[in-house]
Design brief:
mainly alpha
């Protein structure tokens, strides 16, 4: 009977581990959902920024075309275009793109963690089945 008790103890341990992995997977899935939401928001922000930059650029290029003979307007439009296409705008775009890539990397890492937890949980369940089989053999 001691062997059966030992097997039942091992089964309980593995079942507790399965419960822990199920909880971990649930938490990771919630994290993944939040990351996808953040990625969607990040795409929208980047899209809005680029669209805004494009519209401003188009507007001032039109003003520049119209005002070729007006020195002040030409100078002003050229300066605004330099700002729109300048390093600050490029840095902002790069930071938004970097943020998107970081979110993508975090999504990928979280998916890997979920897959690994599921794989480990599957192995535990196989071990549990084997232990139940051993117990049945001892009972016969």
């Amino acid at each position: 009977m001691e062997k059966v008790d030992e097997i039942m103890y091992r089964i309980r341990q593995k079942e507790v581990q399965v419960d822990i992995f199920q909880s971990q997977i649930k938490q990771l899935e919630i994290k993944l959902e939040k990351l996808f939401y953040a990625k969607d928001k990040q795409f929208k922000v980047l899209d809005q920024f680029l669209e805004s930059q494009y519209k401003r650029k188009q507007k001032y290029q039109e003003v520049l075309e119209i005002s070729k003979n007006i020195r002040f307007m030409k100078t002003h439009s050229t300066r605004v275009l330099d700002i729109i296409q300048g390093t600050n705008a490029q840095k902002t775009e790069q930071k938004l793109e970097l943020s998107r890539r970081q979110i993508d990397a975090e999504i990928h890492q979280t998916q890997i963690e979920i897959d690994q937890a599921r794989l480990t949980m599957g192995r535990l369940e196989i071990n549990i089945d084997q232990l139940y089989y051993e117990r049945r053999k001892l009972s016969i």
